[in-house]
Every structure is written in structure tokens, then in C-alpha cells.
Amino acid sequence: xxxxxxxxxxxxRFDRVYILGHIQPDGDCIGSSLGLYYLxxxxxxxxxxxxxxxxxxxxxxxxxxxxxxxxxxGSLVIQVDNSVRNRSCDCSFMDASVVIKIDHxxxxxxxxxYNEERMTSSCCEIIASDAVEKGLKITxxxxxxxxxxxxxxxxxxxxxxxxxxxxxxxxKLLETKIDVSKFLSKAYERxxxxxxxxxxxxxxxxxxxxxxxxxxxxxxxxxKYSLSPDMVSEALSCMRNIKEHPLYVLxxxxxxxxxxxxxxxxxxxxxxxSSFGGGGxxxxxxxxxxxxxxxxxxxxxxxxxL
Length: 306
Description:
This protein is of the alpha/beta class. Helices cover 36% and strands 17% of the residues.
């Protein structure tokens, strides 16, 4: 079902409409939430409240409200790019009267009143595709957000989830005359501090007996370089595209737990992520561990895939 058919049906029933993303937001999360905001504002004349955690990297796309003491009761909530309810930036969104879930991950938790779950390159692709199909007016602001999410979540259109439909929708966004080189340079730029951190991350890279590449970034390293969670994730680039090592994983300290980011080239990692309470895409997933003592368990599970 076209997501805008659902919005047509529900949006006039509510005075308050919220658009939420997931914890540790990325380009697709911010792009889809703000892109949808601009589409609704332009085509429905409604102001929505976008709720996301802070991430400076994508502040050029627009502004949003930080999660906190928001009362969602009696409201319409649109939750984007979030496969399971407990990974929302504000889990109290389930108090809403109606929840519309828009997501492109493997289906684990159909928590919405409406669940639009499709295996595409990005959540932004779903929103942009349905906007084109519906004949909605796509402003440059909306197109910039949606193209950013499509590009960043697909590895600049190089990952396996990219299809001819992905490129067709991207071309429709380009028809709005957005300046891709200008805004994507912001999405992909690094400051000098991050580059110095990546140099250290290379030196911390290890390999298991079966060939799984892994890096652990402890809190003291994060403090040394004043790293935000999204900056820590830049260390994944150290392990990407290394010959004969298709599977790699990044561990980092995060709020008293261990954040795990699984990546692979052609080997499904989502089931391993799920076994540790996480989830995500077939070749890109995440999880949380209680402590660093569990890291060997994860590495053993990944070794068994090789």
C-alpha cells in the first residue's frame, strides 16, 4: 500500500503528528524523517514534529526536536527506518493512537497500526518512490533529504540492495535540480580529529583464526578524540574491501554497554546479530553487549560463518 494513501486516511484525524527515527541516527534515518516532514508540509499543509537524537553531521538537512518528556497519547506517530520498537529514539511513541511504521529492514517486529515494510536500499527510497507514484510535489528540501538517505545507506549506490528502481527514483529526485555535489560533500566529509582517530583504528585492527576482521574502541580512545557514536562508526571503513576478508565487526563502548556493528560482503550476519539481541540488514546489522567479556562469543559466532 502506498504510504501516502495511509497518511491521506489518518492525518486529518489528529491535531498532533510526530515523525520519529531510531537511536544513533544515520543519514537514512535523518533523511527519511525530514524528507517526509517536507513532503507532508508541502502537500498536506500540515506541520509535523520531527523527533531524533542529536547528530551534527546531518544538521544541514534541517532541524528537529530531541526526545524527552513528549506525551504521544492521542497523536499520530510515523516511525521511520526502525525495525524494532525498542530501538526508537523515544520508546514512549507506542502511547500514540495510531502508529505508521515505514521500514526497509528484515521484518522482526510489526509494531505499527500500519506496517509498510519493504526490502529496499533505504527507507528514503520507500518514501521517495511512493511520493513519485502518488504524484506529490517534491521540493528541493525534500529531495535533498531523501537523496542523502538513499546515497549514504546504499554506499553511494554500491551495496547489494540497489536496484534499477533505486536508480530510477534517484533520477526523479535529481529532476528537482538539487546540488548533489554540494550537500553530499557535507555528508561524507571528515574533520582532522576523525582522520587521526581512523589512523589509530587501523593500528587496533585484529583478525580471528578464521579471518574475521575486528576492532574494539574503548572509552578512553573515544574520549581522547572527543568522538560521537557516529564518528566511532567511521572505523568500519578501515576494514571494508580488504581482499579475502569479507566479514568484519566493530565493537565500541557506548553508555556502559558494548555497541556491535556487523558488516560483510556476501555473508549474512543478521542472524548472529539477532542471537545477541540485535538485528538489521542481511549484510549490515547491529547489537548491544552487556560487557566486553562477551566479545569473544561474538567472534566465535562469526568464525562459524566462514
